[in-house]
């Protein structure tokens, strides 16, 4: 589409002036400025165009103006100019695509769909058009049309897994976890899969009660993405729901090496799994003093180390924890 736009807008007007004339061709100059990225100069050149001239190529004039405003993120004037370009004559399909983009930015999703439909057959082989149309239907709370658009795109582009991926995420958002899992497996088999894909599918399996499948998938993802704490966090929650507290604690401890803020949760899981002394070891590494002291008091009480618990009165008072009635009672 960009090549088409270059040919129609910039190609015929690479000169600044007409041959044999000293008169500046402002429309050609604006096209040249846009091509070079000089948006402000392009608008200045367009302001010099005589719009009363009956010979003016109005479609091209308003298209250039719409593009200039779009590149400056001035969406309302961009839409106005593009609408005028379409009204002025036979505009190229790319103008409708730009109008759809502008309408999307203005949250006029119905308008974006209409513009894409008006673009006609010229955009039937452009994958991004189907993605935009599906997302517009989704944002208009029309999931049936959103899914139907993705199904249509998958038939047109059978080798493009991105439509299947988007459909999986839509199904997850709709709470249709079992359907999402089936399609998610198909997607992962047909593509390398991204980190967020494994996490989304793992969460879908977990929500649908398929805990064993979720654990298997996330364990594979953990090997594929060893630097990700997010995979380990989801996997730890799967283990918790399977009541495998020790395994959950170990996984979250590994995640804490990548994301130290998780140390407190890992220590709590070790406490819940009966490994109190290991929980104390992790607790000593916490940098958040209130969290550290609150958790340590609970650990001392669980170990019945009452003298050590009582000795925490001054440190807890120093950080303001004794304003909590439950903690005051525990110290007492």
Polypeptide structure, described:
By secondary structure, the chain is an all-alpha fold. The N terminus is likely disordered. Helices cover 71% and strands 0% of the residues. Helix 12 runs antiparallel to helix 13. The N and C termini lie far apart (74 Å). The protein contains 21 helices and no strands.
The number of distinct helices, counting runs of at least 4 residues, comes to 21
Mean pLDDT: 88
Low-confidence stretches: 2-8, 10-22
Beta content comes to under 5%
Sum this structure up briefly.
It contains 21 helices and no strands.
Keywords:
332 residues; mainly alpha; elongated
Topology:
Blueprint: H1 2-10, H2 26-36, H3 39-47, H4 58-71, H5 75-88, H6 93-105, H7 109-118, H8 127-139, H9 143-156, H10 162-173, H11 177-190, H12 195-207, H13 211-224, H14 229-241, H15 245-258, H16 263-272, H17 276-283, H18 289-302, H19 306-310, H20 313-318, H21 325-331
Helix pairs in contact: 2-3, 2-4, 3-4, 4-5, 5-6, 6-7, 7-8, 8-9, 9-10, 10-11, 10-12, 11-12, 12-13, 12-14, 13-14, 14-15, 15-16, 16-17, 17-18
């Amino acid at each position: 589409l960009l090549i088409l736009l270059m040919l129609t807008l910039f190609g015929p007007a690479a000169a600044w002036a007409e041959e044999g004339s000293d008169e500046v061709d402002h429309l050609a100059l604006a096209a040249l400025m846009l091509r070079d990225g000089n948006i402000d100069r392009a608008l200045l050149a367009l302001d010099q165009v005589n719009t009363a001239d009956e010979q003016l190529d109005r479609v091209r004039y308003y298209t250039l103006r719409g593009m200039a405003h779009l590149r400056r993120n001035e969406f309302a004037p961009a839409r106005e100019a593009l609408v005028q370009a379409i009204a002025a004559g036979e505009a190229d399909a790319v103008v409708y695509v730009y109008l759809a983009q502008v309408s999307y930015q203005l949250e006029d999703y119905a308008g974006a769909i209409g513009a894409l439909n008006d673009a006609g057959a010229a955009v039937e082989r452009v994958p991004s058009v189907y993605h935009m149309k599906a997302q517009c239907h989704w944002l208009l709370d029309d999931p049936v049309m959103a899914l139907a658009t993705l199904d249509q795109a998958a038939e047109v582009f059978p080798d493009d897994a991105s439509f299947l991926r988007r459909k999986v995420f839509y199904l997850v958002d709709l709470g249709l976890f079992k359907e999402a899992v089936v399609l998610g497996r198909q997607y992962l088999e047909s593509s390398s899969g991204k980190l967020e894909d494994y996490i989304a599918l793992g969460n879908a399996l977990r929500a649908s009660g398929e805990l064993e499948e979720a654990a298997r998938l996330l364990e594979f993802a953990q090997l594929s993405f060893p630097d990700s704490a997010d995979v380990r966090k989801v996997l730890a929650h799967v283990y918790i729901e399977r009541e495998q507290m020790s395994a959950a604690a170990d996984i979250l401890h590994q995640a804490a090496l990548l994301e130290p803020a998780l140390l407190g949760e890992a220590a709590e899981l070790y406490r819940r799994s009966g490994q109190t002394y290991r929980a104390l070891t992790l607790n000593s590494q916490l940098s958040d003093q209130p969290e550290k002291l609150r958790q340590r008091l609970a650990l001392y009480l669980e170990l019945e180390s009452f003298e050590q618990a009582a000795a925490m009165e001054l440190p807890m008072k120093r950080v303001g924890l004794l304003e909590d009635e439950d903690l005051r009672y525990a110290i007492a």
